[in-house]
Amino acid sequence: MSLNFHVVERPDMSKDAEKGDKLYYGQIRSLKKVSFQKLCDMIAMRSTAFIGDVMLVVEGLLSVMQERLEEGDIIQMGRLGNFRMVAGSKGAATVDDFDTSLFKNARIVYVPGTMLNDIRKSATYEEIKPLSSEKSSPSTPDDDRPVIE
Fold it and tell me: Among residues 9, 13, 36, which one has the least CA distance to residue 23?
């Protein structure tokens, strides 16, 4: 597995940096999205289920996850990981002064499981080079690559 990246210039935000100093950072780039339809199709091809069955099960999973997260449960999904709801609050001077309006927006916390942690640990990186601005030579009949202009 190789993650695509490109190098970007950004201001140096370290505390001992001079104003205007810049550093170069690697930034991961996703090149495409896998739609829900395509994901279900890929799962169906790896099983005996039809795509409609896969979609039905995934939608059912999401419905149950919503219900259980709203109840405050931790959802354990084996090697995939765990999901749970958290929310912090502002403080109150006394217990009697505290009410639910002091809560900040709730968030869903996801903790990757063993499978995804293994993928993360074994990641490699491949730089995406920008296309050259120089004009390339015209294509020959035996060359099926497009001319970049």
Answer: 9
Query: In sequence order, what are the residues at sequence separation of 6 or more whose Cβ sits closer than 8 angstroms to the Cβ of residue 127?
Result: 4, 5, 6, 7, 26
The token pair that represents 141 in the structure block: 């009949």
| pLDDT tens for each residue of 113-141 | 999 999 999 999 999 887 765 544 444 44
| In contact, 7 and 27? CB cutoff 8 Å | yes
> In Å, how far from its chain's centre is CA 110?
11
Bridge-based pairing of strands 2-11 and 22-28 is antiparallel
Q: What is the mean pLDDT of residues 76-93?
A: 95
**% of the chain residues with pLDDT over 70:** 87
pTM of the predicted model, to two decimals? 0.67
- Give yes or no for a contact between 86 and 109, defined as CB atoms under 8 angstroms apart: yes
The 3 state secondary structure assigned to 100-124 is: HHHECCCEEEEEECHHHHHHHHCCE
* Burial zone of 40 (CB within 10 Å; 0-12 exposed, 13-18 middle, 19+ buried): buried
Q: Which of 72, 63, 60 is nearest to 106 (CA)?
A: 72
